């Protein structure tokens, strides 16, 4: 028999999370029961797997880890598993600081933390390429100052880091900030996102050479950065000429879909250009676009529904066709269509998760809940008294064994379950 742990004060997001994880840990059973508990009670009776899963979901992990049995907090092997669930527990006062001398332990924490941990870990790791690089996914530019002087001058390392986060350019060594060849390499990786950080005397030489400007901009074109730099050093007529340069426009849009808004209406109305942008909003006149093209744009991004003509957004026949493409667009429909059972069923048949974005009354409909478990995707809404629904859901999970659309944050749970055979 599996168990679904629920705190007394859970919000809806926590209910969603606990539902999925409890189901993952009850793969071998056909049903699971719901148990309400206070996380501060009976800690010693909980299994390691149960505690680790709860740690993943708890929003106050630092307080929660302190409630663990001392023998677990003092176990390096258990805490290695714990930091894989939540790397930020390295900040906890109860953590044995000797664990932080183990590079593998620190690397696991850095890989599973949503923030930089460079301030929390021993100083020697600020010179460790891999640990600093992992941290750079979350480091604000001012935190990047914590990396060692060696790394601030390491060109190959900095090129990788700046490609991911251009503002880190501000933290590199003074010598490299004036190294033209290195800056051009950075621009080749980061494109116009670096324009706000390089010295003006170098930026001016780049912007005034139109061929170099086009080459750099086509790598990664961000309109605001480009516009600020161009307005500093280029006459207005040259900027207009660039906005009408069709070849330049297509080079930019292939690498950065958000570049579209810079270019002229004549370019933005071209069907191929709109497709490459994946953004229907750039089209100057949406009413001239045919239904098939609009459906194709919806398949690229359901957010494009917002930019369709109103007469089509309220056309039931057309909306049914959209739900066959991606049922999650149910969220964006008008209130009358969002409660239409034909549309809801069509959406659920395409993706069981569509029931998540239906209105409350429909989400509580048992027939719709059961239908959601029989289609692709996953259904997260908790309805405690419908055990028949949970039986279907659990059987489907067991059949596919982590093979369907589990949210990314729960994939690590599935991996840990397999790796450590958590009970």
Class derived from helix and strand content: mainly alpha
Distance between the termini: 12 Å
Mean pLDDT metric: 77
Order of helices and strands: EHEHHHHHHHHHHHHHHHHHHHHHHHHHH
Instruction: Tell me the overall shape.
Output: flat
Beta-strand content: under 5%
Gyration radius, rounded: 26 Å
Q: Spans with pLDDT under 50 lasting ≥5 residues?
A: 1-45, 378-423
Largest sheet, spatial ordering of strands: 1-2
Beta strand count: 2
Q: Biggest sheet, open or closed, and with what strands and sense?
A: 2 strands, parallel
What oligomeric state do these chains adopt?
Answer: single chain
Fraction of residues in helix: 40-55%
Determine the number of helices (DSSP H or I, runs of at least 4 residues).
Answer: 27
Task: Describe the 3D structure.
This protein is mainly alpha-helical and 423 residues long. It has a domain of 107 residues. It has a two-stranded parallel ribbon. Strand 1, helix 1 and strand 2 form a beta-alpha-beta unit. Helix 21 packs parallel to helix 23. The protein is flat, with a radius of gyration of 26 Å. The termini are close together.
